[in-house]
Amino acid sequence: MGSSLNDGGGDDSSHLQLLSSLIPSEESERKFLLNSYDHAFKGFSAMLTENEASVLSGYDEVVSVFPDLVLKLHTTRSWDFLEAADSKFGSRFPYERSSSDVIIGIIDTGIWPESPSFDDHHISKIPSKWKGVCMEGSDFKKSNCNRKLIGARFYSNRDISKKRNETSPTQSRGSPRDFVGHGTHTASTAGGVPVANASYYGLARGTARGGLPSARIASYKACTLDGCAGSIILKAIDDAIKDGVDIISISIGVSSIFQSDFLNDPIAIGAFHAEQMGVPVVCSGGNDGPDPYTIVNSAPWIFTVAASSIDRDFQSTLVLGNNESYKGSAISFSPLTLGKRYPLAFGEEVAANFTPASDARNCIPGSLDPKKVAGKIIVCTNDEPNVSRRIKKLVVEDAKAEGVIIIDGERETTPFDSGTYPFAEVGQTVGFKILRYIHSTRNPTATILPSSEIRNFRPAPVVASFSSRGPGALTENILKPDIMAPGVAILAAVVPKIESFYGAPGNKSSLFSIKSGTSMACPHVTGAMAFIKSVHPHWSFSIIKSALTTTASVSNNMGKTLKNTSDSSANPHQVGAGEIRPIKALDPGLAFDTTINDHLSFLCYYGYKQERIRSMSNTNFTCPKHSTEELISNINYPTISIGRLSQHEGPRKVNE
Prior knowledge:
seven-stranded parallel sheet; 24% helix; Glucose Oxidase, domain 1; 18 helices; eight-stranded mixed sheet; Rossmann fold; Alpha-Beta Plaits; alpha/beta; 28 strands
């Protein structure tokens, strides 16, 4: 994937010429050519055999050839929480500024244009720098775009839908419209306009808004519920740069176990060329935590985001037959009341025949006897990490249980949305008290009440248990993640129709939903960068990234060091520089201007050959002499990470 800084775009003849050396006839070439990239970088995707790909990789003009992996999809109060400590004007200061021409490109599952978060009332005319389009498709017209949602594209590779066995490829891919909800949620988090009285069926009620409500949104639908083809993500990045976006937000990534190489990663390659064109790329760090070496999107030219909680929690109250009551984490619209108690049983007491007690305790599929479970509230443990809370809930629900209580050894920061099914998740201390009660009486009973919102929750922020951790598996000499932002229980716009699948209450689908993931953290950073750019339009995005990094907080709302869910102190491989503080970043003092030459030096130090770097970047860059991986720590990056610290390392200083 070489740069096309000096090349014209729009002609795939050179790509067909390359393919013609592998495939005899031009007709066949056109069948096998899927996408051409010719705006920010030169390249293409094609259907090739392993042997053909191997031959192609040996050509001098080819930088890299890699499989088209399927990547994974990795707010009312969150912005108030981020701004409260620093704004002298109150939390409404940032979004009451004048209209902005900052354009945010969201590469995701598309967009639901009817959401009130994308209303263009009070938004000025579309900036002249915008060169993009509003593509029409099934159930999507040009009129669905406006002065807020200024562009929308979708992509469809030939035979890809059939190859991946998608059940409804026409509906899913044949339109910019979002049928998943992920893209709508991330777009509104980054740049949605203020929507008063937003809530998820009454929970998290308040004014929902993005980081820069006056920003323009351009949506690039590169994903479906089945995932995201790397070749399509590359095409979306290429188009976004051509269209004139200012920032690209990508809440997508390869699984941490499939990381291979910076120049074989479609997001890393696309992001490098975007950075080369002055367009920063913000990415989620992945949801494979809490294990180390799970961070993805770890190239130094990507702004990589970890996820944290905010000062809000959602809790169900569970009341035992002895009238003792406890709080459990949940988003549950339970229909149960205080007026009736239900038999309470531990999973191992209602085990199916010939089932190990440990399986029944964990409510593993097939481990419970439906006849013993029906009509009871079941208590499950969470000792088996491969059986999710959703699976446990489905197991007991299918067995006709009245509800479920899960005992988790680690305080879970992410409340589980169980819809109308009674649910509560408690820690070991409360779990022990519940089990002691069960074993102390012949007929234990309980009820689980609907969830309520707890504000000003402490401590916050806490590193989300799911948030992927560093060090980076590819190199430990760059600190990843870069930064942390809210990604737990974030309220934002959603596709209304999908709410019916979750058993949510009410006859009318909610316009907003509560979701968690580094996918939700990523657009918070995107929105923060857009906000700073609107205040300081002459700042480069490198300076803006530096400002957010050097002003990040490592303390929680109790004035103590940031913590994990295990209550241990968080380290930089978990939080990066810390939690973003967008208002403080407006006046950072010191700034580190990381340039493309720093990134090219990184590639040299990492071990890539000079000719490959020149071909990829379309430059005459010369690698520094005696390049070694240890020298990566020397590039002008706003943080320092040294994989193997030598006793001979000298002091580091800032050159003015």
